[in-house]
Prior knowledge:
Blueprint: E1 7-9, E2 15-19, E3 22-25, H1 31-37, H2 48-59, H3 66-70, H4 76-83, H5 86-98, H6 102-118, H7 127-139, E4 146-149, E5 156-159, H8 160-168, E6 178-182, H9 188-198, E7 201-202, H10 203-206, E8 207-213, E9 219-224, H11 226-231, H12 238-247, E10 258-260, E11 265-268, H13 278-288, E12 293-295, E13 300-308, E14 311-318, H14 321-325, E15 336-337, H15 340-347, H16 349-366, H17 373-384, H18 394-400, H19 404-408, H20 413-423, H21 432-438
Antiparallel strand pairs: 1-2, 2-3, 4-5, 6-14, 6-15, 7-12, 8-9, 9-11, 10-11, 13-14
Helix pairs in contact: 7-17, 8-16, 15-16, 16-17
Amino acid sequence: MKGLEDLSVHYDQTCAMLVEGGSFSLSMETAAWIQAQNGNRAEGCLLSSAISRLRVLLEMRDALSPSEISMLWITDSQMKIMLGPKFHKIENVAANIAGITSKQLKVFLETCIYRYHLKKVEAGAAIGAIGAQSIGEPGTQMTLKTFHFAGVASMNVTLGVPRIKEIINASKNISTPIITAILNSDTLFSARMVKGCIERTVLGEVAESIKIVLKRQASIVIKLDVKKSEDLRLGISAEIVQSAILNHPKLKLKPDEVRVLSLRKLRIIPNVGNRSKLRFGLHTLKSMLPKLVVKGIPTVERAVINNDKGRHHLLVEGTNLLAVMGIPGVCSKETKSNHVIEVHQTLGIEASRRSIINEIQYTMGTHGMSIDSRHMMLLSDLMTCRGEVLGITRFGISKMKDSVLMLASFEKTAEHLFNASFSGREDQIEGVSECIIMGIPMQLGTGILKVRQRVDPLPELKYEPDPILS
């Protein structure tokens, strides 16, 4: 409510937020409204290709039957030219089949247009407060902690009040980040291949043994389980493990210290200058190797194959949407994430705005609640109007608005007032909170009007000495 309280509709049918020095307009989707107000402009322009097509149709009008003509994309005027006197007969037959007259249809359309205009939002309406109430009131009926099975029994996603709180506060670390990866192929084999490329695989899961060998030369011998790797469609070999070991920043091993013995075996011979620390170094290295990521995305915990209406897709538990979209076999255009901040960092501010709307709708829908999409569009526009995703918290509101009294009425009252008085800041007293605190009419509802009266100029007064009468 504190973030949306200043939003109202102006006379130009735009939504603006009162800030210092004027109003800050939000980018609302008004294309549908403009098309409804200007229905005649919805028709496309007449192209040269349409004129050529009409000329061909006119030349062939005698060879076409009425059923063939009805299948063509032509206007009523073109049909009148093609059918001639038969047009009115066909029109009467169509009216009898429909069961309504043109007068009844006209009255029906006029009634629809009249009711449409009655539903229009009037200028000055506090749509921000209405939207905040429409989103907040159903939230009181939601459970505090809910986990929903996202298509399969092994995947849980946070819902209910905690999920709504994560979205509105624009949390950078959410409890259950889920990436829905749509695949290019519908086969189960390709789904398993993509899963093996996405899901994080550590060396301890594919290694048959990791042993310390002290004979001849102290080393660590790693033996891979090739059969398990083939069954899981991982394709992990000794060369891949060698590359992962050399690229790990904490191991700090050189290429000559990691040797590939065969397709499934490799040896690590660490070069330790002090022989007394060799045994300790080998045991430390052995404890780190099972946690080494050899394939997949390190930030992905796991991936589950889900079948929806005969089409396979992956539910990826973790982050790094950009890496998932770049995996071969993943349809990047349809891949989405429930992490709003990550969507903004990967796809931009417009995608994060759409993600906020979808996540609120999905969370409310799982509890059987339906909210008008315009309220969520207003909230998402407010959170993204500055070019970044701002949460409805004291940190986000301080970036949205600059009013001292408004910020002091929210949280940390004494701190805001002290800092403002110390720096000598001025407040324009334009928002709702400021006007209520100062006891002046706010610029919402009837307060949006400013009645002025034209005053005639006063006669000019001339100060002259009185005339001397003799």
